[in-house]
Design the sequence.
């Protein structure tokens, strides 16, 4: 899944800074968000 941080943030209903913090490890990714991202990755474009 190749999304920009802003696109992913919009789909998840969070701020792009939050996505950045998850990616860098500054904040833990909530389990529900991790599951959503896994499901989104399995979707066909």
Sequence:
């Amino acid at each position: 899944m190749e999304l920009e941080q802003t696109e992913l943030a919009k789909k998840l209903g969070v701020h792009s800074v939050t996505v950045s913090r998850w990616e860098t490890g500054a904040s833990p990714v909530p389990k529900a968000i991790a599951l959503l991202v896994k499901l989104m990755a399995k979707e066909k474009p």
In short: The chain is about 65% helix and 0% strand.
